[in-house]
Structure of 2-C-methyl-D-erythritol 2,4-cyclodiphosphate synthase:
Amino acid sequence: MSKHFSECPFRIGYGYDVHQLEEGLPLWLGGIKITHTHGLKGHSDADVAIHALCDAILGACALGDIGKHFPPSDEKYKGIDSKILLKEVIMMIHQEGYKIGNADLTIAAEKPKLLPHIDNMRECLSNIMDCLIDQISIKATTTEKLGFTGREEGISASAIVLIYKANED
Ligand SMILES: Nc1ccn([C@@H]2O[C@H](COP(=O)(O)O)[C@@H](O)[C@H]2O)c(=O)n1
Ligand SMILES: C[C@@]1(CO)OP(=O)(O)OP(=O)(O)OC[C@H]1O
């Protein structure tokens, strides 16, 4: 069911997510698997960066959040690849007539070093999001050993997204 949006052709959205680190789990971040001693725990593959991004995109369209569309209580999402969820979210905004303008993400992780993986993540996400790599920015930061990210208990991610109304012809 299509919603009635305001006349403004641009909308922005913000998303934030946290997942706990556990030894021995695979680490999925920004759609790619990264070699590390610990991975993130969740009902899905726990890709915290994709989850923040999905929430930002859904937020831009006032469509709720990922938990509303893909409930963690539903067995069908157990272990699911978050790239599948992102693709579904993109389809939802396309249905409303919107496309991705740009997205900017920050991942807070004490370890591992993410810089060598950032461009692979951007390429992976831009392919799913039907946009160019330069429309996706991903940054990494430590939290200087402070807080739960600093103690390597978890990783957080935040995302901001601009979407625009695409021409109908
Ligand atoms: N997991 C991380 C965290 C940070 N980086 C890169 O290091 C730079 C410095 O980090 P600070 O937290 O000291 O500001 C940061 O700008 C990133 O380029 C990283 O690669 N992986
Ligand atoms: C991705 C979903 C899928 O069930 O589960 P989790 O991996 O637990 O992730 P979270 O960010 O806690 O919640 C969102 C859920 O939609």
Notes: The chain has one domain: 10-165. The chain has five helices and seven strands. Residues 20 and 41 are 6 Å apart (CA to CA). The mean pLDDT is 96.
